[in-house]
Design a protein that fits this description.
Number of strands: 4
Radius of gyration: 52 Å
Largest sheet: 4 strands, antiparallel
InterPro entries: P-loop_NTPase (IPR027417), Rad50/SbcC_AAA (IPR038729)
Distance between the termini: 155 Å
Organism: marine sediment metagenome
Strand order of the largest sheet: 1-2-3-4
Protein name: Rad50/SbcC-type AAA domain-containing protein
Low-confidence stretches: none
Pfam family, one: AAA_23
CATH class of one domain: Alpha Beta
Mean pLDDT: 80
Order of helices and strands: HHEEEEHHHHHH
CATH topology of one domain: Rossmann fold
Keywords: Coiled coil
């Protein structure tokens, strides 16, 4: 019984001793123990899986961990299938084995004192358990897939029928289509000629634009040169004005120096 408890707890997080308790993990711990760990490898649909469930009882809030994985063909490398939460991981395990805990305990073995548990369940629950055991849920999935295939086939048939009718209509309009094709060819030739003419004009305009850009560039260079020459001319004018101002000052000093002896002679007389 301990082995069965370990198996069911590892896979579903429940066991025979604790199925009616609100916290099955705590009920499975031996007195005085604080940790419980079960690692179970099992085969399903020719694939080997591993489930690892662990429970820690601490002074604070108890902690639980659940890991799920599938082995590669080498039977050594384990590919993790664990989801973000324990609940989602548990759902993934049940989806893999297609069997929940209630279906297992009502078919695989009878719990002590619960031999009539299945008969006491409601008709809805008994139907759900039998559906899980017999794989009716998988049958429903296959049935839906088959119905979808039928729907796709009908749609494809309708599409092909519509295409066939359209082709017949086109064949009936073949003479008209031939005339239309001739007119389209004439219009195409006209458009090609027009396109050729436009291409030629475009080439001419591009050449003119290039020439204008070149002239504009030369104009900018000339403007820049004139600006520099104007600055140089202004600088020369400023130098001339400064030289003229300096010359006047020197000339004035020279005239004063020339008149100074005459003033001395007049003052002496």
């Amino acid at each position: 019984s301990a082995l069965l408890d370990a198996i069911t707890w590892a896979i579903w997080g429940q066991a025979r001793k604790t199925s009616n308790t609100s916290k099955p993990d705590a009920g499975l711990l031996h007195l005085g123990q604080t940790t419980m760990l079960v690692i179970l490898d099992f085969e399903c649909n020719r694939q080997t899986y591993r489930v690892k469930r662990e429970y820690f009882k601490t002074y604070g809030k108890p902690l639980a961990q659940l890991e799920f994985g599938i082995f590669k063909e080498d039977a050594i490398t384990l590919i993790p299938l664990t989801d973000k939460t324990i609940r989602k991981t548990q759902e993934k395990i049940i989806q893999t084995i297609h069997l929940d805990y209630d279906a297992f305990v009502n078919t695989a073995f009878l719990r002590q004192g619960h031999s009539n548990e299945f008969s006491q369940k409601s008709p809805k629950d008994r139907k759900a358990i039998l559906g899980t055991i017999l794989g009716l849920d998988q049958y429903e999935v296959v049935r839906k897939l088959a119905m979808e295939k039928v729907r796709q086939a009908v749609n494809k048939k309708n599409t092909l029928s519509a295409f066939h009718e359209k082709m017949l209509e086109q064949l009936a309009k073949k003479p008209q289509l031939t005339q239309s094709k001739k007119e389209l060819l004439e219009k195409e030739n006209q458009l090609l000629a027009r396109a050729k003419e436009l291409t030629k004009k475009t080439t001419t305009l591009q050449a003119q634009e290039k020439a204008i850009q070149q002239e504009q560039k030369q104009s900018e260079i000339l403007t820049l040169t004139l600006g520099q020459q104007q600055k140089e001319l202004n600088r020369i004018i400023e130098q001339l004005l400064e030289t003229k101002k300096l010359w006047k000052k020197v000339h004035h000093e020279k005239m004063r120096a020339k008149k100074y002896p005459e003033l001395l002679e007049k003052n002496h007389n």
